[in-house]
Amino acid sequence: MIQAVIAPDSAAARNIPADCRKDEAEQERVSIAECELMVANVKIMIASRPSWFRGVQMGLALLGTLVAFGSILVGVALVDYRRWAPGAAVITFATLVVLDGVGFMTAFYTGPLLRALYLWNILLWFSIHLCMTLGAVAGRRAERVARHRADTVTA
After folding, report:
1. Torsions phi, psi of 75, nearest 5?
2. CA 155, CA 153: separation in Å to the nearest integer?
3. CB neighbours (10 Å) of residue 106?
4. What's this model's pTM, rounded to 2 decimal places?
5. DSSP assignment string, 111-138
6. What phi, psi does 111 have (nearest 5°)?
7. Domain ranges of the chain
8. Shortest CA distance to 50 belongs to which of 98, 112, 1?
9. What is the pLDDT of residue 11?
């Protein structure tokens, strides 16, 4: 979402000076120096961002959101003991891992400020989604083993 706010045609990108009025700074409880640093931070972010990064990051965010909503539906199906749900959980969580990997690679090839901003968050989500994927794979395998044992006992 950061890339949606920091647009290429923003005031910071057009080098419009910071409008850090004292009364507004006091209202927001920041000093004038902090206000100017925030504007400088946005300028640095725009300067260190490759032209392709904003579109790729927005696309990944959209895909990740859609897959995350799909994972909620898969979770409901898992609770309801649907037969197809364990396989769908593996696919859904693996898709999130892949999206995190692509996001990591895109953030890795940007400037140092964007790397510092994105990489740790992406690594955190990557590890969470990887654990969920491995848990779904283990659960699917345990279910198959239990089903096979039940079939051999009744046969």
Report:
1. -60, -40
2. 6
3. 19
4. 0.77
5. -HHHHHHHHHHHHHHHHHHHHHHHHHHH
6. -75, 170
7. 1-48, 51-155
8. 112
9. 61
C-alpha–C-alpha distance, residues 25 and 33, integer Å: 10
Rg of the chain (C-alpha set): 23
Task: Please count the other Cβ atoms lying within 10 Å of the Cβ belonging to residue 133.
Answer: 20
Phi, psi of 20 (to 5 degrees): -100, 80
Whether the per-residue pLDDT at 150 is higher than 60: the answer is yes
Higher pLDDT, 16 or 26: 26
* CA separation for the pair 97, 147 (Å, rounded): 28
